[in-house]
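Today's session is about reading a structure prediction critically. Students often jump straight to the picture, but the first step is always the sequence itself: look for stretches that repeat, for charged clusters, for runs of hydrophobic residues. Only then move on to the predicted structure, which in these notes is written as discrete structure tokens rather than atom positions. Here is the chain we will use throughout the hour.
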Amino acid sequence: MQNESKKPRRPDDSHRVAIIGQNGTGKTVAGVFQLSQRSYNRMPWLVVNYKGDEYLDSIPGIEEISHEGAIPEHPGLYMVRPPPFDGTLDGLLMRAWKRGNVGIYLDEGYCVGQHSQAFRLVLTQGRSLRVPVIALSQRPVWLSKFVMSEANFFQVFHLNAKDDRKTVAEYLPVDVNYTETLEDYHSLYFDAGKRALVTLGPVPFGQDVLNIFDMRRPRRTRKLG
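Below is the predicted structure for this chain, in token form.
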């Protein structure tokens, strides 16, 4: 099943992506790199930063908004900082589900809570509504099972805990213990729709990823006269 020769397919605005790995494996940089390739120049993308990650805060051009407010009308990247586990993100997720055409990036996706009905709607119906999701987690065993069952793409880094590896193994056609042999910052990348599995090398270095956002930012033209 593993194939190193073919270039992997990239997710589009109908897809959900699960990025899994313990701290220090490159998971966050990989997630931000995937976000840098997405359609925030055509639609709003909400970046849910539960733990105040400084790397997410460093994304050029990102605008901070309240998670209790309306979904922005204009394309761009929008940071929200809800408290974890108390259900306060559900309102924003419901508004995203009703509106459609809005992306969601979740750092530590298990902080939404396993029983969030709004998150479940986004994951199970988001494809037809064009609500793409990138969900990261260091503990997949704590995630809503719908993150895994509805994911179109998986990127899996090294996992320490046996129960985490067991959880991921239900969805990948490979012995997930194989991640223990991966080189630093390498990952398994599984396209569930194509049943295609490859090993990925490291994404660009942290600052290089941030530079992609800066290059893709719309530049205002100066009016003369």
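Discussion point for the tutorial: The radius of gyration is 17 Å.
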